[in-house]
Inverse folding.
């Protein structure tokens, strides 16, 4: 995986850094695994805007991803690595020995023709999904379940990974991408390896128009607003705006919003870094 810096033949390309797409092997998605994706433009069922800065953007179709990896013990061959407009990571089209095709989140180092498998007793190799109890200590994992059979919900975006730190009874200790260390049931599945497209963080849009392509509308800086519109608005001249906070007055930059009485707090060993 690599990135490319474009030649500045237009103002928008002067600082543009794009993905090299070296890992991508095809640009044609599997038709049987596509679903329609309807845009809401940030409006609810009454047509009222409930999310600001949404709207427009290129038309997309959703790729149905197998986050559960519940076809245990059946080998699958990686047919292609593909781009997915709905996520930062690349996806892999896999074909099982019984002929079924599925999309899975691709891991770094996953190759076309590689054989992957899921379930207990599988080898701890790149792309295989195993229960956390079967994975050796210190292994880099991603696409982690929080409850058995729920499907992967943690460490799914480009370049992310977690590390298996310890095993104790029916729980294992995982260090998450945020820096949080927590307990997870040992029967939950996780995939070996870090998520693909780790160079995603190096990309530079280059121009405001690219945000519009992605469905993001312009955002007004809070310090440029009036006091009636935002807590950071108003003041004479270029006032700094005071303490950073949201439109509703909730402090930003370090203020903890997690409930102190939340039931799952007991599973968190160490909170994420500020």
């Amino acid at each position: 995986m690599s990135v490319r810096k474009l030649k500045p033949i237009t103002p928008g390309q002067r600082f543009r850094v794009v993905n090299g797409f070296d890992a991508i092997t095809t640009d044609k998605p599997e038709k049987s695994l596509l679903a329609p994706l309807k845009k809401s433009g940030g409006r609810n069922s009454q047509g009222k805007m409930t999310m600001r800065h949404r709207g427009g953007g290129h038309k997309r179709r959703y790729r149905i991803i197998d986050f559960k990896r519940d076809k245990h013990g059946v080998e699958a061959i990686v047919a292609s690595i593909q781009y997915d407009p709905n996520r930062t990571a690349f996806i892999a089209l896999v074909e099982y020995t019984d002929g079924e095709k599925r999309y899975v989140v691709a891991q770094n180092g996953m190759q076309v023709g590689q054989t992957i498998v899921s379930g207990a007793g599988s080898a701890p190799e790149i792309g295989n999904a195993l229960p956390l109890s079967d994975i050796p200590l210190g292994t880099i994992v991603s696409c982690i379940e929080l409850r058995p059979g729920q499907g992967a919900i943690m460490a799914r975006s480009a370049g992310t990974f977690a590390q298996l730190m310890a095993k104790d009874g029916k729980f294992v200790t995982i260090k998450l991408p945020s820096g949080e260390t927590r307990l997870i049931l040992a029967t939950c599945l996780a995939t070996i390896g870090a998520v693909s497209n780790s160079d995603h963080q190096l990309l530079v849009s280059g121009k405001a128009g690219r945000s519009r392509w992605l469905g993001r509308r312009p955002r007004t800086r809070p310090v440029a607003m009036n006091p009636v519109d935002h807590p950071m608005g108003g003041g004479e001249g270029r006032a700094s705006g005071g303490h950073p906070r949201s439109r509703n007055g909730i402090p930003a930059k370090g203020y903890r919003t997690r409930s102190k009485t939340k039931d799952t707090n007991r599973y968190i060993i160490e909170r994420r870094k500020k």
